[in-house]
Amino acid sequence: MTAPEPDSIAAEAALMPYVAPAAPHGGVVLAVSGGPDSMALLHAACRAGATVPLHVATVDHGLRTASAAEASGVADTALRLGLPHRTLTWTGSKPATGLQAAARSARYDLLARYAESVGATWVLTGHTRDDQAETVLMRLLAGSGPAGLAGMRPERALTGTVRLGRPLLGLSKASLVAYCAGLRLIPIQDPSNADPRFARARLRGLLPDLAREGLSDARLCRLAARCARDDDALARAARDAYAAARRPAEAPALVRLDAPTLEALPDAILIRVIAQALDGAGGRARLERLEGLVLEALRPALATGTPLRRTLGGCLLALSRGRGLTLAPAPARKSGADGLAAGARDLLGKGSGGAYIGPECPD
């Protein structure tokens, strides 16, 4: 095979910390669909001098007639490279709406379970700088805060023992296409990537025009890096504040927080502390609903010492002079009742348009 161009060798360098680490680990599952990004991932992992076990997995969502044949083609490639391959099939009914979000969730679940079954420590994907720019743009349109605008993180936990890594996130798709061309590979082209039924595909078509106006992929990725830095700092501050505000809770309350401690917090931290309290009580709310409760109801009540009762994300929040703020399971809602209870649990604007504070959505 012909060696890749020098500027494409960056792909192999990006894989080395995962496949040839200083301290050995349980191995890597390479998520390979057969497209240029994942084929570059596969071959770069092999050429980077792997010292840990490599496993290749292809997720067949069963959404296109060609998907089974494409998975078989990846299996043949893995066999030629001397690597084990497994096709992971998404079975069961498929949703009529939010299909791509559901497919992403299923994909990571399948990959994580397969990694656990083979004892692998990492699942690696071929996401690129282009994918990051698209993700940030989608979340910008969804009205996300810093957690969403941080885009896809280079690494995150999938399970207690498996982490997701995106080693190619800093590289452009064009460089990976060139890498594949240098190795004389013929990747497949997924037609859904250009299907206008999907928001990501429509935005992908807009990016060249946006770049000409100055909103380039580089600037979108720079925005993601800045938001990730700020989000990490806010998250640390909120964790400390939540720990300082916690008080022992008595049934039926699941969480109790000290009111004076909450009152002293800046709005940005207070919103996150209430999000953590909701999570601790088994609830979750979209960002705009959470902001509405905290800024329009809780903040004024804290300032005046006024009792407050609201429902949000399946929890009843009650503020009183003697007990502070408590969170307990919300009583059953009457049919058609209004209120601040959260709706569908889409993540960071994927689906019905709500944005969340918290872990990134599973791109």
Automatic annotation (TrEMBL):
- What is the predominant subcellular site recorded for this chain? cytoplasm
Main EC class of this protein? ligase
UniProt GO MF annotations: ATP binding; tRNA(Ile)-lysidine synthase activity
Give EC number(s), comma-separated: 6.3.4.19
| CDD domains noted in UniProt | TilS_N
Q: Which InterPro entries match?
A: Rossmann-like_a/b/a_fold (IPR014729), TilS/TtcA_N (IPR011063), tRNA_Ile_lys_synt (IPR012094), tRNA_Ile_lys_synt_N (IPR012795)
Q: Which Pfam families match?
A: ATP_bind_3
Query: In its UniProt record, which GO terms are filed under biological process?
Result: tRNA modification
- Enumerate the subcellular locations listed in this protein's record, separating them with semicolons: Cytoplasm
Residues reported in the UniProt entry to bind ATP: 33-38
Recorded GO cellular component terms are:
cytoplasm
Q: Which UniProt keywords apply?
A: ATP-binding, Cytoplasm, Ligase, Nucleotide-binding, tRNA processing
Q: Which reaction does it catalyse?
A: cytidine(34) in tRNA(Ile2) + L-lysine + ATP = lysidine(34) in tRNA(Ile2) + AMP + diphosphate + H(+)
The segment(s) forming the tRNA(Ile)-lysidine/2-thiocytidine synthase N-terminal domain are 28-204
The domain of life is Bacteria
What does it do? Ligates lysine onto the cytidine present at position 34 of the AUA codon-specific tRNA(Ile) that contains the anticodon CAU, in an ATP-dependent manner. Cytidine is converted to lysidine, thus changing the amino acid specificity of the tRNA from methionine to isoleucine.
| Record-linked PANTHER family | TRNA(ILE)-LYSIDINE SYNTHASE-RELATED
Domain notes for this protein: The N-terminal region contains the highly conserved SGGXDS motif, predicted to be a P-loop motif involved in ATP binding.
The family this protein is said to belong to: Belongs to the tRNA(Ile)-lysidine synthase family.
Q: What is this protein called?
A: tRNA(Ile)-lysidine synthase
Q: Which organism is it from?
A: Methylobacterium gossipiicola
GN (gene name): tilS
